[in-house]
Description:
Elements: H1 9-12, E1 42-48, H2 53-69, E2 74-80, H3 85-94, E3 100-103, H4 108-112, E4 120-124, E5 130-135, H5 142-154
Parallel strand pairs: 1-2, 2-3
Antiparallel strand pairs: 1-4, 4-5
Amino acid sequence: MICASATSVMASSLIDKPSPECKLTTLDGLPVGSLQAMKGKVIYLDFWASWCPPCLQSFPFMNQLHQDYGQQGLRIIGVNLDEQIADADAFLSRYAAQFTIAADPTKQCAKNFNVIAMPSSYLIDKEGVVRYIHRGFRPGETEQLRTVVERLLQH
Length: 155
C-alpha cells in the first residue's frame, strides 16, 4: 500500500452500493459492532497506519468532525492496518483519537473496500450505502469531506 491519493475502478464500483461487511476488532482483539448494525448513523470509515504521514495529519480533522457531528449521528471508525499493534499503540499515545479505533487483523475488510492508499476514507450513509470515497489526506481537502458529512447527516 502507498501513502498517496489514488482512485481505482474497483473502489469506485463501491459507490452507491451497500458497504462491504467487515469483521473489525478493538486493538485488544474484542469485536467491534458490524457496519450493517450501525444503520441509522453516518459512518466515516478511515483506514490508516502509523507509518503514514498523511494519516498523522488526518487525526486532528477526524477528532474535530467527531466533536462537531458526533451528537448528530456521525460515527467515525479509524481502522488500523499496522502489522504490529504496538506500532498503532505508540502512534495513538502521541496522537490521541476521540473516535473509535479498530483493527482489521485479517486485512479482509481492507480487501473488501479495495484499500490501496493510506489513508482511505469511506463515507457511508444512514442506510449503509457507500456514498463517497477519499484517498490520501491533504488539509485543503477537508471542506469537501465536511460538506459530504453534513449532507449525509441531513438525509
